[in-house]
Write a structure and sequence with these properties.
Layout (H helix, E strand, L loop, with lengths): L7 H4 L2 H9 L4 E5 L4 H9 L2 E5 L9 H18 L3 E5 L1 H13 L4 E6 L10 H19 L4 E4 L2 H9 L8 E4 L21 E5 L8 H14 L4 E5 L11 H10 L3 E2 L7 H5 L3 E4 L8 H8 L3 E5 L14 E4 L4 H13 L1 H18 L2 H11 L4
Parallel strand pairs: 1-2, 3-4, 4-5, 5-6, 7-8, 7-10, 8-9, 10-11, 11-12
Length: 367
């Protein structure tokens, strides 16, 4: 398995790796960072971990060529029967390396197309053209392409990034461990909202802060919490911005933690005003714990909410609409509680991690 973040091998793919081991496969996980914690945790479940010099951001042809060469060498040494790559660069270079290494089954998982595929402005359009070209080259090496939502599948087909010879499989995100993320009783008042995710603009962070500011003008008792770490992504916020919000009192910053469950349990509503996702893991975890959801009507996010059943959908980049939805939640705590129960029911119906992993393994002929 090839990814772009060491930690994601545990937080997002841990159960899938366990499922591969349980099926009797020898498993190698590959990511850029030499993370001792990840290495040890993966070893404990029977997975070998290795690194390649693949940078998350930037497009340096020479650096990426060096990473692709290193990845090919690593895969040739391991001689895998099947390779699964996820994330843009791993899909492109991992799929090429897998073919050169002779892997019989090559799979790519699209975990969120993002706005980069469309591109806004002259520079954005150039980057979008480059990205589409790279995807087209990388995906041409695969046998199966796995999507986490139907919108991304349609987008890739519209841009002709996948060919007729490839099987296309749709799964319900990365799934969620329903036993680990069990229902937690709602906390006492006041109404508390929590947003969980990397502190980057594309998650709708600025919209959340502005909406919280607006709601607290009329309901100063309301708590708006933020959980997640600063990120080197070009759209990441600065420490200074975070400090200003904290000093203003508009948000309570909970830091970056390994286990989000106590913080989700301490809130009534999960908020994610993202501009687009594959399938937001933070929302699935909150749903499994019995929390109402406010998220955006965009690819990946809209699949997690049935309007009025377990939460509300709002337009992206619209803090006023988000504030209005938050005020409706504040005004009706009983409805919030009922929505939380419906969230858990939906998680059980659609997002059980074992069902999702079963579909992925079947698509790769590993189960």
């Amino acid at each position: 398995m090839v990814g772009l973040l060491a930690e994601s091998m545990l937080s997002f793919r841990g159960e899938l790796l366990r499922a591969m081991v349980a099926e009797g496969h020898e498993v190698l996980a590959i990511a850029p960072e030499d993370d001792a914690h990840v290495r040890a945790e993966l070893a404990a479940i029977g997975v070998t971990y290795d690194t390649v010099p693949l940078r998350r951001a930037g497009m340096s042809p020479w650096r990426d060529l060096r990473a692709a060469t290193s990845l090919t060498r690593t895969l040739r040494d391991f001689r895998p029967a099947a390779v699964l790559a996820y994330g843009a660069k791993p899909v492109v270079y991992g799929s090429l390396a897998a073919r050169l290494a002779g892997a019989r089954t090559r799979a790519a998982m699209i975990t969120g197309a993002g706005s980069a595929l469309s591109g806004a402005g002259p520079r954005g359009r150039i980057l979008a053209t480059v990205l589409r070209t790279l995807y087209r080259i990388g995906l041409a090496q695969t046998h199966v392409v796995i999507f986490q939502n139907a919108d991304d599948r349609s987008l890739f087909k519209a841009h002709r990034l996948i060919g007729r010879h490839q099987r296309v499989v749709l799964v319900n995100g990365s799934g969620v461990d329903l036993s680990r993320f069990s229902v937690a009783p709602l906390p006492p008042p006041p109404m508390t909202f929590v947003m969980v995710g990397r502190l980057i603009r594309d998650k709708g962070l600025y919209e959340y802060v502005e909406a919280a500011r607006e709601v607290r003008r009329s309901h100063p008792e309301v708590r708006a919490q933020l959980l997640g770490g600063l990120d080197a992504n070009p759209s990441g916020i600065s420490q200074a911005e975070l400090d200003r919000w904290r000093a203003e009192g508009v948000i309570e910053y909970l830091g970056s933690v390994k286990d989000v469950r106590p913080h989700v349990a301490g809130a009534h509503v999960c908020v994610l005003p993202s501009y687009g996702e594959g399938m937001p893991r933070s929302v699935l975890e909150a749903m499994a714990m019995g929390r109402a959801v406010i998220t955006t009507d965009v690819p990946g996010c809209r699949e997690t909410v049935e309007e009025g059943r377990n939460g509300m959908l709002v337009p992206p980049r619209d803090p006023r609409a988000l504030a209005a939805a938050m005020r409706l939640m504040v005004a009706d705590p009983a409805r919030v509680a009922q929505m939380g129960l419906e969230s858990r029911a939906m998680a059980e119906e659609r997002f059980d991690v074992h069902a999702v992993n079963g579909a992925i393994l079947a698509a790769m002929h590993l189960a």
